[in-house]
Write a structure and sequence with these properties.
Blueprint lengths: L1 E5 L4 E6 L5 E6 L6 E7 L4 E6 L3 E6 L5 E6 L5 E6 L8 E5 L4 E4 L10
Antiparallel strand pairs: 1-2, 2-3, 4-5, 5-6, 6-7, 8-9, 9-10
Length: about 110
């Protein structure tokens, strides 16, 4: 079993719950503190929201950044992934009071 954590230092860490060992650290030198994060269905990608209004999708198998999306809404206040949707739609709540929906496989503008 594994868990993710996000820090004020801009890092995302993947932990082994059985041993307590850190398995991976993703470090963004931009964006500021991690405000929200969630796993995307399939188990190999994580979406991260930060103070700069971007969401970033990372591959946790190899530690590479897949993409960055400017939501245009300011600080990310929360995000969730719809587990009942096979696409794993990402819902993003921003400082401007809007919730935007993104498809992680079709990078670009919000769906809604």
């Amino acid at each position: 079993q594994q868990a993710l954590s996000g820090g004020d230092d801009g890092t995302v860490r993947l932990w082994c719950l059985n041993t307590g060992m850190q398995l991976l650290m993703l470090s963004q030198t931009y964006g500021g503190p991690i405000r929200a994060l969630a796993m995307i269905p399939g188990g190999n990608r994580v979406v991260v929201g930060s103070d700069d209004g971007y969401i970033r999708i990372w591959n946790i198998n190899n530690g590479l950044l897949i993409c960055s999306i400017n939501t245009g809404g300011g600080v990310i206040r929360g995000l969730a992934v719809n587990p009942s949707n096979p696409l794993g739609q990402i819902l993003v709540a921003s400082m401007d009071g809007y919730v935007r929906v993104y498809d992680p496989d079709s990078i670009g503008d919000a769906i809604r």
